[in-house]
Amino acid sequence: MNPKGKGPDRRGRKARRTRDTLAQHAFDLVLDRGLKSVTVEEIAQAADVDRRTFSRYFPSKEAAVLDAVRGDGDRINRALRERPVAEPPLTAYRRAVLDWLGDPEAEPWHLRPRIFDLLVMAEEEPTLYAAYHHIRVDAQEESVRIVAERLGVDPQQDLRPAVTVAAGAGALLAAQAAWVRGGRPAALPEFVVHAFDALSAHLLESPQAGPAPHSTTQGSTA
C-alpha cells in the first residue's frame, strides 16, 4: 500500500487538477474573447504550464473548451443503464435525458454558468461545432451498446439499437438547437419534451385521412 497522499493516486489527482485547470482557462478565455482570438499557448500560460503539457491532455483548444460538457454524455448513459428494463428503448432514452437534466446531485446542465453561451458559440464556430459533434458521437456509440444490451441483441446485426439512439439523439439535438435560438436558458427541458413528442407515431401519418391521391380503386371495401 502506498503511503497516504503518495504514489499513483496522488499523480492521478494532480493530473486531474491540471486537466481541469486547463479546461477552465480555455472555457473562460474563449467565451471572453472569442475562439479565434485565443491561442493554445495563451491557455497553457494562464494555467501555468507549457504547450507540451497542454497537448498531453487535449488535442486542440476546442477540445479543452468543451471539456465542461464532455461528461454529460456519460451522465445520460449512466441514467440510461438505470432505467427499468421493461421500458421501450426510446422511452428509456427520453427519460434518461430528462433524468440527466433533473439530476439532484448536479447543477442542472442548462443552468450552469455560461454553458448556454458556449453552445451559442458552438452554433457559430465550425471547428467548435465539429468538436462538439465528435463528443456527441462518442456518447451515442456507448448509448447504442447500452440499448443493445437491454434488447439482448448484437448491434452489428440488429439495427434497432442504432435507430433508437439516432432518433433520441436527434430529438435532443433539435431541442438544443431550438433552445439556443430561443434565448431562454431555463427552457431546455420544455424543448426536450416537445422534441421527443415529435417522434410519436401520429406524425408519420397523413394529417388528413383519405384515399391515396392517385388511387384508381372505386368503391373498395378492403
TrEMBL record:
Residues 39-58 bind DNA. This is TetR family transcriptional regulator. Residues 16-76 form the HTH tetR-type domain. InterPro entries: Homeodomain-like_sf, HTH-type_TetR-like_transc_reg, HTH_TetR, MftR_C. Transmembrane segments: none annotated. It comes from the Bacteria. Keywords: DNA-binding, Transcription, Transcription regulation. It comes from Streptomyces argenteolus.
